[in-house]
Write a structure and sequence with these properties.
Length: 73
């Protein structure tokens, strides 16, 4: 984790963004007091999410499909 004062971050932002892209976290400080955190966003999926990966792991009981009682509708 890297701690920087705002002035240092403004001066060398591109250098620190490269390190953030590699997985490091930057804590921005104002007069050595932490005020913000910069970290990489999760990468977006390049392929569609596969369907049916939880097949057989979830059980829905038949009574789930029963109509609700009149006092709960």
């Amino acid at each position: 984790m890297i701690r920087l004062n705002v002035q240092e971050a403004k001066t060398h932002l591109s250098r620190y963004l490269n390190r953030v892209a590699e997985g490091e976290t930057v804590i921005l400080c104002r007069r050595n007091v932490p005020i913000a955190e910069i970290r990489a966003l999760p990468q977006r999926r390049r392929s569609p999410r596969p369907v049916g990966m939880a097949k057989g792991q979830i059980h829905i009981p038949p009574e789930f499909f029963d109509p609700l009682p009149d006092d709960e509708t």
